[in-house]
Amino acid sequence: MTRPRGAPPREVRLIGGRFKRSKLPVADRPGLRPTPDRVRETLFNWLGQDLSGWRVLDAFAGSGALGFEAASRGAAEAVLVERDAALIDSLRRSAQRLGAAQVQVVAADALTWMARCGPARFDLVFIDPPFDAGLSAPALAAAGPLLRAGGVVYLEASQAFVPAPGWVLRRHARAGAVHAHLLQPASYTDPDPDRRSAP
To answer: Roughly what angle, to the nearest 10 degrees, separates helices 65-72 and 37-47?
Structure first.
């Protein structure tokens, strides 16, 4: 039996790093839409292929494609926040199967968890909520205090996102129905612009 046109894949393959070619299951859940290979390739060209030492938050983890991709590329910590019980179980099984000790799966609502999280903890925050949930702006606002100096936010949406004042759009790309954005607080001025791939 073939899948309906436009249906999400049943699995997603990691495209780089230590876990390259490893597969993650994709459950049939409303709004679950793993970041496509092409978009992930663009994202990690922006960020750089080596994230050694980075601390990363995947705020709407879903299949875990973004968080595991970061862990695969050397992130020291990857916190995957998800509230769906079946997805949480799948993420934990994937972390165990891959031996990804730096991956921590947290069962929580992303906005609630970010509001309680200590400040200036992460170098990178992934925000990829269901497209129709209206969570992009509140999630970006919640992510701001969690960033270390020089930290960036990756935001995925169904249309070009215009950030609120206080944010700078560093990169934007479109692939099919997906708009990818790399954002940074405007208050940060990098004294060494070559330290990160995002200027």
So the answer is: 40
User: Does an H or E element contain 156, and which?
Assistant: strand 147-157
For 2-27, the pLDDT digits (tens) are 334 445 558 899 999 999 999 999 87
56: left (phi over 0), alpha (psi -120 to 50) or beta: beta
Whole-angstrom Cα Rg for the chain: 16
* Dihedral pair phi/psi, residue 66, rounded to 5°: -70, -45
pTM: 0.88
Q: Are 181 and 154 in contact (CB under 8 A)?
A: yes
CA angle (12 as vertex; 175, 126 as ends), nearest 5? 60
**For range 119-137, the mean pLDDT:** 93
